[in-house]
Amino acid sequence: MEKTNHIENLNLDTINTKAFYKLKANIQFLCPDEESKVIMISSAEKGEGRSTTAAYLSLVLAQSGKKTVLVDCDQRNSQIHNMFNLSNDKGLVNFLSGDIKFEVAVRTTKQKCLSIVTSGPTSLNYAQLLVSENFKKFLSALKKDFDYIIMDTSPLTSGVDAQALSKDVDGCVLVVKHGDTERKTAIKAKEILNKANANIIGVFINQTK
Asked: What is the pLDDT of residues 180-189, one digit of tens each?
């Protein structure tokens, strides 16, 4: 199993912090409305740095004083709980299934202004849960409590989960891995978002020199 670094233990100064602050600034510029607070971070395929991008963006937002919640919507390859050293026995899927309360699903972290919702255990009807009335209630509750809701989704080409989510967000950022993501794959991901009438606000090119 690939070792996952604990994001909270990493100093933002050790990475290209400027890129994530620029990403934050661009999101705030492109989604200036105070009600435009749900941002989806996705990619065409796995291994492109989507979860890491979502995690660092959330940290940067929180450190700037924005009350932020990072939601792991990737059931196939959830990583957020590992990055923040949290258990994943209860999370988003448990709330959507009606097994736990909202307060249990949303967990605080060591970082001020940052909360996490882990994915929870694998569910066979996960796609249906994402278009359920409970998910709408979940988003509505988050919007009341947070300035920004960052959603880490599954890859766009591996199922309908991310496509279903894109209909309920204010903006989508597509993560592309420099020198690795094929052009045709990135174009396919963009087409998937376009068909869902998603608001694509930009592309984040990961691991550039």
From this structure: 667 788 888 8
